């Protein structure tokens, strides 16, 4: 029986994910940026799509506006989380298609800041090399 070499991880199959090392990011196609990104109000504030005065507004009302503006694709009322919109190809709204870099990196949500320390498989990454 021959072993098959996995060229890159499959996003939906966490068992194919690779133990994360910081050096991997520079040679990856940013596959983590195709995963759904759940954010909270403070993340939206940091990104700049809501203002501090909106904190007192009902989250559902904020979600309605952000859905209309195409910033979020879903609101989870029970948990008070919003899911950022993904582009037609599955990329995060804030991922540049050409450079494959985050356009809001310094303001990125906590979900992104903490990946892969937390997530579907903590400590592992859905690494896919650029030249695969």
UniProtKB/TrEMBL annotation:
User: What InterPro entries would the database entry show?
Assistant: Puta_zinc/iron-chelating_dom (IPR005358)
Any matching Pfam family: CxxCxxCC
Q: Which superkingdom heads the taxonomic lineage of this protein's source?
A: Bacteria
Its recorded name reads: Fe-S-oxidoreductase
The major lineage groups are:
Bacteria, Pseudomonadati, Pseudomonadota, Gammaproteobacteria, Pseudomonadales
């Amino acid at each position: 029986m021959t072993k098959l070499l996995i060229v890159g991880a499959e996003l939906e199959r966490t068992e194919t994910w690779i133990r994360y090392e910081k050096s991997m990011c520079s040679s990856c196609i940013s596959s983590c940026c195709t995963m759904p990104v759940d954010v909270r109000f403070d993340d939206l504030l940091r990104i700049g799509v809501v203002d501090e005065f909106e904190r007192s507004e009902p989250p559902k009302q904020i979600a309605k506006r952000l859905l209309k503006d195409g910033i979020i694709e879903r609101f989870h009322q029970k948990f008070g989380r919003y899911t950022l919109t993904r582009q037609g190809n599955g990329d995060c709204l804030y991922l540049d298609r050409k450079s494959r870099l985050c356009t809001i990196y310094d303001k990125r949500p906590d979900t992104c800041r903490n990946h892969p320390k937390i997530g579907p498989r903590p400590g592992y990454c859905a690494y896919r090399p650029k030249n695969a």
